[in-house]
Amino acid sequence: MAQGGINAALGNAGEDSVASHIANTLKSAKNIASLDAIKHLCENAPDAIAWLDSIGVCFSRTKDSKIAQRALGGASSPRACYAQDYTGLKILHTLYDRCLEQGIEIIHETFLLDIHTHENTVMGVSALDIRSGETKTYEAASVILATGGYSRVYNKHSTNSTASTGDGIASALRAGASLSDMEFVQFHPTGLKHSSILISESARGAGGYLVNSKGERFIDELLPRDTVARAIDAQIKSGENVFLDIRHLDEEFINRELPQERKLAKLYENVDPVSDLVPIKPVAHYTMGGIDVDAKAMTSVRGLFATGECANHSVHGANRLGGNSLLELIVFGKLAGENAAEFSKNVSSSQAQYGSEKSQRASSHALLGNSEIDFYKIREELGDLFYSQVGIIREASQLADALVKVESHIANLPQMGVKDTSKVYNTNKIEFLEFKNILELSRLILLSALSRNESRGAHFRSDKPDTDASFDKHTVIDKDGVVS
Ligand SMILES: Cc1cc2nc3c(=O)[nH]c(=O)nc-3n(C[C@H](O)[C@H](O)[C@H](O)COP(=O)(O)OP(=O)(O)OC[C@H]3O[C@@H](n4cnc5c(N)ncnc54)[C@H](O)[C@@H]3O)c2cc1C
């Protein structure tokens, strides 16, 4: 789905340096990222782009055939390399092709259930074969989780795929891994008003304006996302509608550089950005928190690695910069792959002990049963609750109220369940599994948000509007769910 681009200080569209990339990322992270991790991200960015280019990602080009770069919020220079506004898709397709070429086995339609461990060391995973309904186990000397974020806790108020339900994060916690910074959820300023579909920051990067019902601009459009989202939220709460305005950009430019944005606005909002204002609102977009990993991308469970949005590599801190997530996938994905391979080499064949552990985990998802309470209804209510009370502006009593509601849903879980008893392609079952993960993560987001008694980046507490230096640290959730 990623449209805007992937960052690297190539300097193809203006003066830039790795030092500026580091400085911008550090500033946006607001003191809770690791300088070493940020340096690793930014210093490896030019090589990451060169590698993607070499394996066939069709980046857009300048007139002199250099990789084109565009401006995104919080960046001191146009730094995002892009492929029109289909950057993520082009990267994904290319990687997929290269995997096929290498004969890498890809097991589709398989849903991760649990991670198996023995003495805090990974042994493999159990997964549901969606096509047959059977639970299968996969033994492994090391495992890498790359299961994405948890923005779908906000249900329809999110730009994300419906699969972003934090399954890998919840499974990692069940397996004994620590999580961190779960309270930090980034709201993207420009989701389409009625569908939450993203209109990329590249539209503002290209010179698009944000205007209210009176046609007034009210914020510097290229400030970091947390600041812009709060400014839009304030306008909406004061009764204004807010619009993205790119009518002053040339139609030919829009068709060439932003073709997907035009299509999405037409399809989902019934407006043509060439001639119309585009109604927008901020929606949940990216989750900075996730599975806590060390400098080798390993979790607190030995041999269990995590990367991408499900992990917290300590580079985004309180607020991710646009274009840094795709970069994180490539740079830290490589690191996780290399370290997982290295770890596997040194594992003795202790898989024999695995049998009893495996069946114990596999049986923990006996899900059928009571469906007195409709979990779909609860999931929708939960999304609305999170959007209104755990969203852009938070406040202790509202968070506490939301926590009481979430805990009551958790207590009611025995009265919820799967109605559809069929085995093959049972989406009801998958959705219930996702719901259970969402519910658990909701509780942890709230506990983390309540424990962070201050405002910082994407976590804005109206009752504690200032940043407090005593919170210059990660919020960690240990394997027992204790927040510190
Ligand atoms: C609309 C949109 C636009 C964006 N634009 C940009 C951009 O321009 N630049 C940028 O840097 N970032 C952008 N981002 C952010 C970036 O795209 C994501 O952070 C990134 O793609 C996450 O990659 P990932 O591989 O970690 O997770 P994902 O891409 O979410 O992939 C996770 C995968 O795990 C699978 N999965 C989940 N649960 C299970 C389970 N239980 N069993 C089996 N499989 C499972 C999912 O189906 C999915 O295939 C954008 C995000 C969105 C939503």
Structural notes for this entry:
With 484 residues, the protein is α+β, with helices and mostly antiparallel strands. Among the domains are: 6-100, no CATH class; 189-283, Succinate dehydrogenase/fumarate reductase flavoprotein, catalytic domain (Flavocytochrome C3, Chain A, domain 1); 375-477, Fumarate reductase/succinate dehydrogenase flavoprotein-like, C-terminal domain (Methane Monooxygenase Hydroxylase, Chain G, domain 1), CATH 1.20.58. The chain is built from 14 helices and 16 strands. The protein has a four-stranded mixed β-sheet, covered by helices on one side. A hairpin with a 2-residue loop joins β4 (110-118) and β5 (121-129). The two termini are 34 Å apart.
Secondary structure layout plus pairing:
Layout: E1 6-7, H1 18-29, H2 35-43, H3 45-55, E2 69-70, E3 80-81, H4 87-101, E4 110-118, E5 121-129, E6 135-139, E7 143-145, H5 167-174, E8 179-180, E9 185-192, H6 202-205, E10 209-212, H7 225-237, E11 242-245, H8 251-257, H9 259-269, E12 278-287, E13 290-292, E14 304-306, E15 311-312, H10 324-345, H11 354-362, H12 375-389, H13 396-411, H14 427-451, E16 476-477
Parallel strand pairs: 7-14, 13-15
Antiparallel strand pairs: 1-3, 2-3, 4-5, 5-6, 8-13, 8-16, 9-12, 10-11, 11-12
Bound molecules: flavin-adenine dinucleotide.
